[in-house]
Amino acid sequence: MEKTPHEHPHDAVSDRHEHLHQHTNTKDVLNRLSRAIGHLESVKRMVEDGRDCSDVLIQLAAVRSALGSISRIILKDHLEHCIVHAVESNDQDAIEELEHAIDKLIQ
Known about the structure:
mainly alpha, elongated, Methane Monooxygenase Hydroxylase, Chain G, domain 1
């Protein structure tokens, strides 16, 4: 796993704590997203073709599982890099944003 520089340029104008950076798993996440998109496009075709509802639901479950896996990778990377940096710099906004993001993720 290749690590890339991790910078946190902050936008002072924005109310949100935004930061741009490359994560260690970007390539893996992008590959997984491409596969999930392909699966979702297959589900769309299944619906268009009038395929059995049970088959469609099974494929949707696979897409949801893939998205969950991607979310876990991004969350782990965020914790290992962004949140470590936030704790080191006493950035409470970043921690609050993580809490908000986790709430949205698990709804």
